[in-house]
Design goal:
The longest helix has 18 residues. This protein is α/β, with parallel strands linked by helices. It is about 20% helix and about 20% strand.
Length: about 550
């Protein structure tokens, strides 16, 4: 997003994309958050089979293809241990599903070594260590099952590009263990494994939100039909002609509020800081205490409040693993300080580009791309199923990938073309919402092989249809970027003519929505993906500009979706 210049701020125009779709990611966290005091204490017995890998086989553990094995010479006890070969494209996740009792507290533990090892339960909590070298370290987490839960999936995984990790003596301890109770080092027994058809209840089973394999599409917990959302960016760190809007004064129309912006101390540091607008620029700015209290009040109403990283001026290049780790720690500090729901990635300009020869979006090799994926996976694993992740790329970084990808097979192209595609693809199972900025854009070719330009409904229909239908990257039909779920998509638009190039009137906004959700009122472009009534909604730059413009954008959204 870009910041429109004003007499008091000449830093350009901040990015305006935000995060719409958190509701479906939050449900899974609820069951895990049950008060531990109301559940039976975990103390009685072992629920995992082959937790010590002494059968010299993986079963009943299941690992990402080609990444898990049982090895000798690395055991903490006994003769064997699990080896997970994490690579640039896989975190080598291994998991086991077991039968559990409802409303019961369990403790999961494991001894691990190697760089970046994670331990957790799907849809619940997790823990990790950044590296233990050659010495084993114990990791442990507790979780409480839901009221109707009968199975749980526990996992361990490493991290992108960090090499092989080892795990041994994995244990899930709790009351009412199966009889006879298999020990942590027992040989796999068919009677001790969970039934293949057993699944956890919806309150806890949100699709493995911590799966780190970029090629895994995942199946995010989706919002119910009709659960549309309005996303807006809030100028929280700067002033411009739109004026300052306090969090407490944001109308309830806004379902996602993206605080703009967190910016790095330098382009390659990875050290993100969120500095609130100073009184000299924003005379009406609220105190830190009131700002935090207002965020908590919005969240209590079910609104999602995120920190948006980047914007036009916040170039972020995670060129090293050190920068990646600093990004994770500094973003975590912002989220924790202000009590936020998650993160919006609004990388623009030269933040993302592809190295020469990096031509496969499913298996990226460029450090700034690989490290960003790794950082986002870490944050998702750290905060669990309720963590909201949204992205607001420009059309150049997404839809342009239909024609051009990176510098191309012979070089010479802009290496930024389509550079968001590997990030979106890798995070698709964890992505709450993607809202591409359909503004400040050049003409882009749609699936009809015609160029479409800003200024009317057709542009929004054509650009959104590419994400609903999927498309061949750089025209290669053997290399398809797969469609996203409609509930993961919102359309990015400027709120007013002041907010950015590409403003369209409410009439054109409604035409685009009619065409995409109902296949009515279409212009020259008819969606290839058909009617998509569960399209999540709209995103705009910005809440401030909407307020400045008499709330034309948000009132029209409320009127359209009722």
């Amino acid at each position: 997003m870009r910041r429109t210049a004003s007499p008091t701020n000449h830093r350009g125009r901040p990015g305006r994309l935000a995060a719409l779709g958190t509701a479906w990611a939050v449900a899974a966290a609820g069951a895990v958050g049950l008060a531990l005091g109301t559940a039976p204490a975990a103390s009685a017995g072992e629920f995992l089979t082959n937790g010590g890998f002494e059968s010299n086989a993986l079963a009943p553990w299941s690992c990402a293809a080609g990444t898990g094995s049982v090895v000798s010479g690395q055991a903490r006890t006994g003769s064997y241990a699990l080896a997970g070969a994490a690579s640039a494209s896989s975190s080598a996740q291994c998991s086991q599903t077991v039968t559990v009792a409802p409303n019961t507290t369990y403790t999961l533990s494991a001894y691990v070594k190697g760089a970046y090892v994670y331990l957790g339960v799907d849809g619940g909590t997790s823990t990790w260590t950044p590296g233990t070298g050659g010495a084993y370290q114990k990791l442990s987490v507790s979780f409480t099952t839901g009221a109707a839960q009968t199975s749980a999936t526990v996992y361990t995984h490493g991290w992108y590009g960090q090499g092989t990790y080892y795990a041994d003596d994995v244990s899930l301890d709790g009351p009412g263990a199966p009889s006879p109770s298999p020990s942590a080092t027992a040989t796999a027994s068919p009677t001790a494994t969970a039934s293949p058809t057993a699944t956890a209840t919806p309150t806890v089973t949100a699709t493995p939100t911590t799966t780190a394999t970029p090629t895994s599409t995942g199946t995010p917990t989706l919002p119910p039909p009709g659960n549309h959302a309005l996303v807006g960016y809030l100028h929280a760190s700067f002033a411009n002609g739109a004026g300052y809007t306090k969090v407490a004064d944001i109308p309830d129309s806004w379902d996602f509020i993206n605080l703009s912006f967190g910016e790095p101390t330098s382009v390659t540091s990875g050290d993100i800081r969120f500095n609130r607008c100073p009184v000299a620029e924003c005379p009406s700015v609220e105190s830190d205490a009131d700002f935090k209290a207002a965020i908590a009040a919005k969240r209590a109403k079910g609104k999602k409040v995120l920190i948006s990283i980047g914007g036009q001026n916040g170039q972020v290049q995670l060129t090293t693993t050190a920068a990646r780790d600093t990004f994770v720690s500094s973003v975590s500090a912002i989220i924790d300080k202000w009590g936020l729901d998650g993160l919006d990635i609004d990388f623009e300009g030269h933040s993302l580009s592809l190295a020469t020869g990096d031509t496969d979006f499913k298996n990226p090799t460029t450090p700034v791309v690989v490290n960003l994926i790794s950082a986002l996976k870490t944050l998702k694993a750290k905060y669990g199923a309720g963590f909201v992740l949204t992205m607001a790329p420009e059309t150049f970084f997404v839809q342009l990938g239909y024609q051009y990808y990176g510098s191309g097979p012979w070089g010479g192209q802009d290496p930024r073309a389509g550079a968001y595609l590997p990030v979106i693809y890798a995070m698709r199972g964890d992505l709450t919402l993607l809202h591409v900025q359909d503004y400040n854009s050049g003409s882009i070719m749609g699936l009809d092989n015609q160029y479409h330009s800003m200024g009317g409904a057709d542009f929004h229909v054509a650009m959104t249809d590419m994400l609903l239908k999927g498309f061949p990257v750089a025209g290669n039909t053997a290399n398809m970027f797969p469609a996203l779920n409609p509930s993961q998509l919102a359309i990015g638009m400027p709120a007013t003519t002041n907010a950015g190039n590409g403003y369209v009137s409410p009439t054109e906004v409604n035409k685009a929505l009619d065409c995409l959700t109902k296949l009515t009122n279409c212009g020259s472009y008819v969606p290839r993906a058909g009617a998509q009534p569960n399209l999540r909604g709209l995103m705009t730059w910005s809440i401030n500009w909407d307020q400045f413009g008499g709330r034309e954008f948000s009132k029209n959204f409320d009127s359209y979706f009722g």
